[in-house]
Amino acid sequence: MVKMFCDQNYKFGVLPKKDGFMIRISLKPGYITSKQLNVIGYIARHYGEDKVHITSRQGVELKIKHEYLENAEKLLNDVGLKLGSTGKRIRQIKSCIGRECQNAIGDSLSLAEILHNEFEGIWVPKKLKINISACPNDCAWAKFCDVGIIFRYTMNINSMECSGCGRCEEFCEVGAIDWKNQIISKKCIGTGECLKLCGALYVKDKVISIYVGGKGGKFPKMGKHISDVKTEDEVVNIVDLIIEKYAKYGKKRVYDLIKNYNINTIEDIENI
Ligand code: SF4
Ligand code: SF4
Q: Quick one: which atom of ligand 1 is closest to the CA of 135?
C-alpha cells in the first residue's frame, strides 16, 4: 500500500524516500510558536530520526517512518501547521525579519503573510518562489527568485539646503547623486544611507519594488524590475497577474516566460 501511495499519488508536502517519507511543513512567514516547535520536536523524536532540517526557504522538513504519516499530519494540523511547499506549486513565502531590523523601510512580514494566505500552494507549471525584503540590502534574496519584492525609498535633494560640498557624490556607492544638477538618478537603489551624511538629502517617498524572473541555482539570474507601487493591495494584484499569466503560458520557470515574451514592464505582462 505504501508503495502504491509513493509511486502514483504522493501528497503535497511529502517526499517519498527509500526508508520513510520526508515531510515538509509549509510555514507562515516569520515565526512559529513554541507549541508548534514542541509538536515538531515530538514528531522528530517519536516518528523520525530525532532531527529536523531547516531549508534554505526558512522551512522545516524531517524524515519520518512510513506508518506515522497520518499521525504526524494530524498533530501538525492541530497546532495550525500544514504539509506543503513541494512540487509545481507556489512555495512557502520567504521574508527577512522586517520591522525588527533597524534598516527596515516597510513591513515585509505582514506582506509575506498576506501573500502566503492568498497564493501559497496554488498549482503552477513549475515551482514559483516569492521572496520579500524590507530594504534594499535584500537579505531575503528577492532579486534572485521568480517574484521578488523589495521595500525602498525614493530620494531627492533640497537645493536650498545644499552647500555644494560634493561629499554625497563620493559617498553614494552606485553613483546616483549628481549634486551639481541637483538630481538623484534612476541608479539610486533607495537604502537611504545618504540621509546620515547630509541634511539636504531627503526621502521623497517609500515604494515597493517588484522584480520578476530571477532565479538561483547553477545559472543564477537577477529578476527584472518591472514596477514600483505603494500599497500591499497593489502588490497582491500584480502577483496575481503574474501567476495567472504564468499558469496560462508558462512551460518552464518564470524566467523563461519573461525571456520568451521579452517582458520589461507590468504592461508587457498584461499584454501576454
Ligand atoms: S533586508 Fe533590510 S530590513 Fe530586511 S533584515 Fe536585511 S537589512 Fe534588515
Ligand atoms: S547634497 Fe549635501 S553632501 Fe551633497 S553636495 Fe549638497 S551639501 Fe554636499
A: 2
Distance, CA of 32 to CA of 255 (rounded, Å): 31
Check if the beta carbon of residue 255 is closer than 8 Å to that of residue 215: yes
C-alpha–C-alpha distance, residues 125 and 88, integer Å: 6
**Rounded to whole angstroms, what are the CA distances from 22 to 118, 161, 169, 182, 267?**
26, 61, 53, 57, 41
Q: Check: CB of residue 3 under 8 Å from CB of residue 10.
A: no
- pTM for the full predicted model: 0.92
Q: Which CATH number fits domain 2-83: 3.10.150.10, 3.40.710.10, 3.30.565.10, 3.90.480.10?
A: 3.90.480.10
Q: Is the CB–ligand 1 distance for residue 139 below 6 Å?
A: yes
Pocket lining: 107 vs ligand 1, CB cutoff 6 Å: no
pLDDT digits (tens, 9 = 90+) for 194-235: 999 999 999 999 999 999 999 999 999 999 999 999 999 999
Q: Residue 200 is which amino acid?
A: A
Question: What are the residues facing 90 on neighbouring strands?
Answer: 128
Cα–Cα distance, 95 to 72 (Å, whole number): 27
